[in-house]
């Protein structure tokens, strides 16, 4: 399909702001919370990350689709986000290893998007007004109708979404003869996280999100991992209760992103919805235990309440975001449990944060 044959499309925000552009992917309509990712690469990893379930992504880098898609770069078994907003969308790709165009990939996965948007202006609007719901359509070009529909989209606050993206059945990852066994609670896990475990002589059993502690414990794991995922952590009550039981048994536990927030909630530390969240590959984080800083990959719209941690007798902050001082890591005093808000399996540093997997492995061997 030639670029100049694209149909018109509309993007309407919850506050009534209207953007006109050209259709990307499947002709249709999509809805969700709009947010932006500042990463210069890795768009396929973003689109298949279950943490983006129910969200429309604004890619701020100028060219999207120019290196095509490759199957091995999937972070899950399917596309998880709701829709795309970008500046320039490419119908062709230049990477020798590419296995197809992003346009074909979107049509195959029923993804609706819009291009030729001034993403710089849009991001400034979101940063000013805050995250909000939005709708993209290339089949309905009546802005008033779309605005009426966008107002019916539920807020991300209070939404439990992990059960919608979690595996329906338990499965294994790694070598069954590995020296360590880790039970993984799948709240929306990325494949690259599992790869970081299996490459370190760990055999994983990945359990559905609502699995009880008792069922996971029957497998006899050396420790537990609580994964990333979408939605409001406070609404993920079943996972909070599971983590409480893991802590009561004083078993090694490591959490990433949503898993980090769940660990906080399990210890009486509330979480809150951020103004517009952190999503990108260049967030500076300071490790308060070592004094060293890391360049991190982040994707979250909720955060742990820093003031509540200060007054906690059981939880202490281990990492902070150097841009806004939000909590990026915690550990539980007198327990073998810790977590981080960012994604150490990603590599913007490129390997600044891999030590966190090693620290968990050390806890498993004690």
Automatic annotation (TrEMBL):
L-glutamine binds at residues 51, 229, 231, 258, 261, 299, 301-302. The active site is at 257 (nucleophile), 343, 345. SMART domains: CPSase_sm_chain (SM01097). Pfam families: CPSase_sm_chain (PF00988), GATase (PF00117). Its EC number is 6.3.5.5. It is an enzyme of class 6 (ligase). GO terms for biological process: 'de novo' pyrimidine nucleobase biosynthetic process; 'de novo' UMP biosynthetic process; glutamine metabolic process; L-arginine biosynthetic process. It catalyses: L-glutamine + H2O = L-glutamate + NH4(+); hydrogencarbonate + L-glutamine + 2 ATP + H2O = carbamoyl phosphate + L-glutamate + 2 ADP + phosphate + 2 H(+). One of its GO terms (molecular function) is ATP binding. Pathway: Pyrimidine metabolism; UMP biosynthesis via de novo pathway; (S)-dihydroorotate from bicarbonate: step 1/3; Amino-acid biosynthesis; L-arginine biosynthesis; carbamoyl phosphate from bicarbonate: step 1/1. Residues 1-180 are annotated as: CPSase. The keyword Cell division does not apply. PANTHER family: CARBAMOYL-PHOSPHATE SYNTHASE SMALL CHAIN, MULTIFUNCTIONAL TRYPTOPHAN BIOSYNTHESIS PROTEIN-RELATED. Belongs to the CarA family. Composed of two chains; the small (or glutamine) chain promotes the hydrolysis of glutamine to ammonia, which is used by the large (or ammonia) chain to synthesize carbamoyl phosphate. Tetramer of heterodimers (alpha,beta)4. HAMAP family: CPSase_S_chain. Small subunit of the glutamine-dependent carbamoyl phosphate synthetase (CPSase). CPSase catalyzes the formation of carbamoyl phosphate from the ammonia moiety of glutamine, carbonate, and phosphate donated by ATP, constituting the first step of 2 biosynthetic pathways, one leading to arginine and/or urea and the other to pyrimidine nucleotides. The small subunit (glutamine amidotransferase) binds and cleaves glutamine to supply the large subunit with the substrate ammonia. This is Carbamoyl phosphate synthase small chain. The gene is carA.
């Amino acid at each position: 399909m030639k670029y100049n044959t694209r149909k018109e499309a509309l993007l309407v925000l919850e506050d009534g702001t209207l953007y006109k552009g050209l259709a990307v992917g499947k002709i249709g309509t999509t809805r969700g919370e709009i947010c932006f990712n500042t990463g210069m690469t890795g768009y396929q990893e973003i689109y298949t990350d279950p943490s983006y379930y129910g969200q429309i992504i604004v890619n701020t880098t100028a060219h999207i689709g120019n290196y095509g898609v490759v199957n091995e770069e999937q972070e899950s078994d399917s596309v998880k986000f709701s829709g795309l907003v970008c500046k320039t969308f490419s119908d062709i790709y230049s990477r020798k290893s590419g296995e197809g165009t992003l346009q074909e990939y979107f049509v195959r996965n029923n993804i609706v998007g819009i291009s030729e948007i001034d993403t710089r202006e849009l991001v400034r609007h979101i940063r000013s007004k805050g995250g909000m719901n939005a709708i993209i359509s290339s089949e309905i070009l009546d802005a008033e109708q779309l605005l009426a529909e966008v107002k019916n989209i539920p807020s991300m606050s209070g939404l439990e979404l992990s059960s919608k993206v979690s595996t329906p059945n338990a499965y294994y990852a790694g070598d069954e003869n590995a020296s360590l066994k880790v039970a993984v609670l799948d709240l929306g896990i990325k494949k690259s996280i599992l790869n970081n475990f299996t490459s370190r002589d760990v055999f994983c059993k990945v359990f559905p999100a609502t699995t009880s502690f008792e069922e996971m414990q029957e497998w006899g794991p050396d420790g537990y991992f609580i994964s990333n995922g979408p939605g409001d952590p406070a609404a993920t009550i079943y996972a909070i209760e599971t983590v409480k039981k893991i802590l009561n048994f004083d078993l090694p536990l490591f959490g990433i992103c949503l898993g980090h927030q769940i660990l906080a909630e399990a210890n009486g530390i509330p979480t809150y919805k951020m103004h517009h969240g952190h999503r990108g590959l260049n967030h500076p984080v300071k490790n308060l235990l070592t004094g060293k800083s890391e360049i991190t990959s982040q994707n979250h719209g909720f955060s742990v309440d820093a003031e509540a941690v200060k007054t906690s007798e059981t939880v202490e902050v281990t990492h902070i975001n150097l841009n806004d001082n939000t909590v990026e890591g915690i550990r539980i005093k007198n327990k073998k449990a810790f977590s981080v808000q960012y994604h150490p399996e990603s590599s913007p540093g490129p390997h600044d944060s891999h030590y966190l997997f090693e620290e968990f492995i050390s806890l498993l061997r004690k």
